[in-house]
Specification:
The protein contains three helices and no strands. It is mainly alpha-helical.
Amino acid sequence: MGDLGLAAKIEHEGEKRRTVCGTPNYIAPEVLDSTIGHSFAVDIWAFGVIIFAMLFGRPPYETPEVKLTYKRIQ
């Protein structure tokens, strides 16, 4: 359930990353908006998506096209 290939260490409280990366169905809205930055909250979002997928058999915003999935997430 984990993919740490894109993991980044947060050095201090309040630090935010601005890279847009992640598995499309599990990416948080703040990751897609690289102007605001993101931190630990995106992990909580992804965990919620995992729980949804376990309950319903599919991610909540899944579509056949990545761009449309991103639009639904935002």
